[in-house]
Design brief:
Layout (H helix, E strand, L loop, with lengths): L1 H11 L6 E4 L23 H4 L4 H6 L2 E4 L4 E5 L4 E4 L4 E3 L3 E3 L3 E3 L12 E2 L4 H11 L4 E5 L3 H11 L4 E5 L7 H18 L3 E3 L4 E7 L2 E7 L4 E3 L2 E4 L3 E3 L2 H5 L10 E3 L10 E3 L4 E5 L4 E3 L4 H15 L11 E6 L3 E6 L5 E7 L4 E8 L2 E8 L5 H10 L5 H5 L9
Parallel strand pairs: 1-2, 6-18, 8-15, 9-10, 9-15, 10-11, 17-19
Antiparallel strand pairs: 3-4, 4-5, 7-16, 12-13, 13-14, 19-20, 21-22, 22-25, 23-24, 24-25
Helix pairs in contact: 1-8
Bound molecules: flavin-adenine dinucleotide.
Length: about 400
């Protein structure tokens, strides 16, 4: 996503050099969020999920090499070596190698019917097997586990989530807000086993048929989807000698330039110096990858602009509930609106300052929240919670 949008903005802003986009996947750049949502449910087509239609790349004079890996990047000599043995000289480079899923090692983990979800092919495989399945176990109570549970349950599958957290999304949003999303899932028939974790898988022949948890549960199933988080894929960056940061990403300036001049990073792997937060940040959100691509392009063209967009995130649980978030930050939530009615914004305050906000149904609240995050401001919590207060006046 980040690389595709960078190529786009290079052309839109008048770059006249050659642009080569190299990706190891079979498909041209595409949006991953629908893979656990509309595309998984068969509501969105492959074409709708693509970043741009196939012919667009040629029209923009962007050379697109799919099914090709960059094996090595010589940052000093400015040469990339590709898996097809080509050596490509470059003036500027962007590394946007994304994330790899965190794999769980447990007895039985190689059985058939156990899935992870990152790419088109994973979503296709889950969709195909879910069509024949009755019972699905999801491992993980965060975005992937909850979104896939919602998608498959909305199509009549019996879904059970096993997770370490006591309530869904607890690590991101705390128990109160996480509990709201858990209730939404449960009201739609998803069973949730919190405070537990995977012990092993058991199979019938080659195929998974049961999940055994550390807490002693035995859950019969026809398939399993694991959403246990991701890790930034910094293999290429490490090999190129780029400095890495504390969050295991590529350490970048506020201009998204790595420790090597002219070599940029963006998206999931980019640990950038955020002028908004006053610290280095690495964020795994679609919108961040998208906007990083633009910032990197502008800086490649010498515009010298910091990346100063407040990170934004969205997620859907089928058509039952949608969340939007700006941040990222921790702290105690102040609730405006009603969790019971599913119409609320949680403003997270830390040391008297707004660090993040999550909303269900009140997108407009994210605008002042983004402003407070940028300004390091913290309105009075009582005024925030009071619905008669105009947020714009705070
Ligand atoms: C199922 C799913 C649902 C999601 N839903 C949401 C959501 O609702 N909201 C949200 O904000 N975010 C969501 N995300 C996260 C979001 O999609 C990512 O943050 C975003 O795709 C990151 O973009 P990126 O460009 O950094 O990396 P990616 O989109 O992962 O692209 C990186 C690409 O680089 C390729 N690559 C890696 N190494 C090499 C190499 N050496 N040579 C060539 N190619 C290489 C990879 O194969 C991959 O194709 C979701 C992700 C998934 C998987």
């Amino acid at each position: 996503m980040a690389a595709a949008n960078c190529a786009r903005w290079l052309r839109e802003e008048g770059a006249d050099g050659s642009i080569l986009l190299v990706g190891r996947e079979y498909d041209p750049p595409y949006n991953r969020p629908p893979l656990s949502k509309g595309y998984l449910r068969g509501e969105e087509s492959r074409e709708e999920v693509l970043f741009r239609p196939d012919e667009w790349w040629g029209e923009q004079d962007i050379e697109l090499l799919t099914r090709t890996s960059v094996m090595k990047l010589d940052a000093g000599e400015r040469v990339a070596t590709l898996s097809n043995k080509d050596e490509v000289r470059f003036g500027s480079a962007l590394l946007a190698t994304g994330s790899n899923v965190r794999r769980l090692r447990a007895d039985g983990c190689d059985l058939e019917g156990i899935h992870y979800l990152r790419a088109f092919a994973n979503s296709d495989a889950i969709r195909e097997e879910a069509a024949e399945a009755e019972r699905v176990v999801l491992i993980g109570g965060s975005y992937i586990g909850c979104e896939v549970a919602a998608s498959l349950a909305s199509q009549g599958r019996q879904c059970s989530i096993v997770m370490q957290e006591e309530v869904t999304f607890e690590r991101h949003f705390g128990p109160e807000v996480g509990g709201f999303f858990q209730r939404v899932l449960e009201e739609h028939g998803v069973t949730i086993h919190g405070g537990d974790e995977l012990e092993r898988f058991e199979g019938s022949g080659e195929r998974v048929s049961r999940v055994i948890t550390a807490g002693g549960l035995s859950l019969d199933c026809d398939m399993v989807v694991i959403g246990a988080g991701v890790m930034p894929d910094v293999m290429l960056a490490r090999g190129a000698g780029l400095e890495l940061g504390e969050a295991e990403g590529v350490k970048c300036s506020s201009r998204l330039e790595s420790s090597v001049r002219g070599v940029y990073a963006a998206g999931d792997i980019c640990e950038y110096d955020s002028v908004i937060h006053g610290r280095h940040l690495r964020v795994e959100h679609w919108d961040v990858a998208f906007n990083h691509g633009k910032t990197a392009a502008l800086n490649m063209l010498g515009r010298d602009v910091p990346h100063d967009t407040v990170p934004y995130f969205f997620s859907d649980l089928a058509d039952w509930s949608s969340m939007e978030y700006v941040g990222p930050g921790a702290g105690e939530p102040v609730i405006r609106g009603s969790l019971d009615d599913g119409d609320f914004t949680a403003f997270y305050l830390d040391g008297g300052k707004v660090t993040a906000a999550l909303t269900v149904g009140r997108s407009d609240d994210l605008e002042p929240a983004g402003r407070w995050i940028t300004e390091g401001a913290g309105p009075d919590p009582e005024a925030l919670a009071d619905e008669s207060t105009d947020l714009a006046s705070l």
